[in-house]
Amino acid sequence: MTSLLVIIVLVLLAVALWQLTKIFDLTQVGASSDDSQVASDNDNNIQGYVMFGFLAFIYIFTIYGLLKWGGLALHTPASEHGLLVDNLMNITWVLIFLVQFITQGLLYWFSFKNRGNKDKKALFFADSNKLEAIWSIIPSVVLACLILYGLYAWNNIMFVDKDEDVIEIELYAQQFKWTARYAGQDNVLGKANVRLIEGVNTLGVDMSDPNAQDDIVVSELHIPKGKKVHFKMRSQDVLHSAYFPHFRAQMNCVPGMVTEFAFVPTYTTAEYRELPFMVEKVANINKLRAEKSIELVAKGGTALDPYTFDYLLLCNKICGASHYNMQMKVVVDTPEDYKKWLSEKTTLAQDIKAAKAAEKPAEGAAPTTDTAAKVIDTVKTVVDTVKAAVAKVAMK
Ligand SMILES: [Cu+2]
Predict the structure, then answer these.
(1) Residue ranges in the chain whose pLDDT is less than 50
(2) Which structural domain range is residue 109 located in?
C-alpha cells in the first residue's frame, strides 16, 4: 500500500513538473516560433499508415480466430429443428462478417486517403438525402428480413399441436440441480405446488390428483429418438434456464409459472458418439487429459479419467454460487430402450409409500425415547429454577 502511494505521489509530481514547463513555454510566446505541436505532412503520413496497419491486424486476427477456434463451436444439431436454428445463426454470422469486412475497410481507407496535407483543403459537406436514404433503407430491409425469418423459425419450433402424440416431461430447476418428472401411463402430469414439498416428494407433487399417481421422478433424463418430447419447466427458487446445447433448445425456468419447449431428438447418444467430428473431438480431449495426467501423476496426484461424450442439460442463467455445476445427464435411447428404462422406474406414489414404510418401525421406538428425554429435561429445568429461587431467598 505504501509503495503504491509513493508511486502515485511520484507520478503526480512528474505531471506537475511537466505542466510547469508548459506554462514556462507559454510565457515565451513571441520570443521564438515553435510549431512542434502542429502535425506536419510527415506526421499525417505516419498516422495514415499506422491506421492501415490496424486494419490489417483486424482482418488477420478475424481470419486467424475463425481458423483456430471455429472448430470449437457446436457441430451437428441433434434435434429436428436444430437445422433451422443453425441456418438462422449461419446467415446472421455471414451477414455480420461481410458488413464488418466492408465497412471497416471503407472506414480506414477513407481515413488514409483523406489524411491531412498542406496542399489540400477540407470540403464543407452539409448533408445528402440520397446517402441518408441508402444507409437507412439497406440496413432496415436486411434487419426486417432477418427478424421475419427468425419469427418464422421461432413459431415453427414453439408450435405444439394439441392433438400431437408427444411425451410430457417436467423439468424442475432448483439451486443447484435438475430433476425430471415423467407423466407416466396417462401422459398427464399431476398438479404440483411448492407448499406440498415434503420428504421424498421433493417437487411438491399433489398426490391427491389422480393424474399424479403414475408420475415418475428421476435425476437422469432419458428421451427416445424420433419422438417429440414436450418439456414443461418449473423453478423452485430463482430464475434458471434449461439449456440443451446439442438440441439447440433453451427456455427460462421462472418461479411461479410453467414455461415449455418441445423438440424431436434425431440421434441416440450412441449414434452421436460415433459421428466423425465427435470421435475426433473426444480423441483430442483425451489426448489433452493424458498429457495432463502425466503431469499430475509426476506430482503425486491421480490420473484423470478418460472422457466419454454425453448430452447435457445445463443451466444458462447465473443463479448462484454453484450455477456452473448445475447440470443433468441426458440420454437419447432407441424407443425400445427408452420404454424398457422407464418401465424399470418406480412411481412417485410407490416411493412415498416405501419411505413411509421405512419410517414406521423407527416411529414406534422413537417417541418413547423422545418423551423420556423431554421429561428429564423438564425436571432438570424445574430443579434449576427452584435452586435459583432458594439461593435468591438465602441472599436476602
Ligand atoms: Cu440455475
Answers:
(1) 365-368, 395-396
(2) 42-116+131-159
Distance of CA 348 from the midpoint of ligand 1 (Å): 24
| Identity at 369, one-letter amino acid code | T
Count the domains in the chain.
Answer: 2
**Whole-model pTM?**
0.72
Distance from Cα 316 to the centre of ligand 1, integer Å: 7
The rounded Å distance from CA 261 to ligand 1 centre is 17
Same domain, yes or no, for 200 and 324?
A: yes
* DSSP structural state of residue 71: G
137 in a domain, yes or no?
yes
What spacing in Å lies between the alpha carbon of 169 and ligand 1's midpoint? 18
Write the pLDDT tens digit of every residue in 137-194: 999 999 999 999 999 988 888 888 777 888 999 999 999 999 999 988 888 888 888 8
- For every residue of 193-240, DSSP letters joined together read -GGG-BTTBTT-B-TTSGGGTT-EEESSEEEETTS-EEEEEEESSS-E
User: Does any domain span residue 173?
Assistant: yes
Give 29 Cα–ligand 1 centroid separation in angstroms: 67
pLDDT tens track for 75-86: 899 999 999 999
Residue 341 in any domain: the answer is yes
Looking at the domain assignment, is residue 104 inside a domain? yes
Residues 155 and 210 in one domain: no
- Rounded to the nearest angstrom, the distance between the alpha carbon of 117 and the centre of ligand 1 is 59
Residues 179 and 321 in one domain: yes
- Give which of 361, 373, 269 is closest to 311, Cα–Cα: 269
Cα of 1 from ligand 1 centre, angstroms: 39
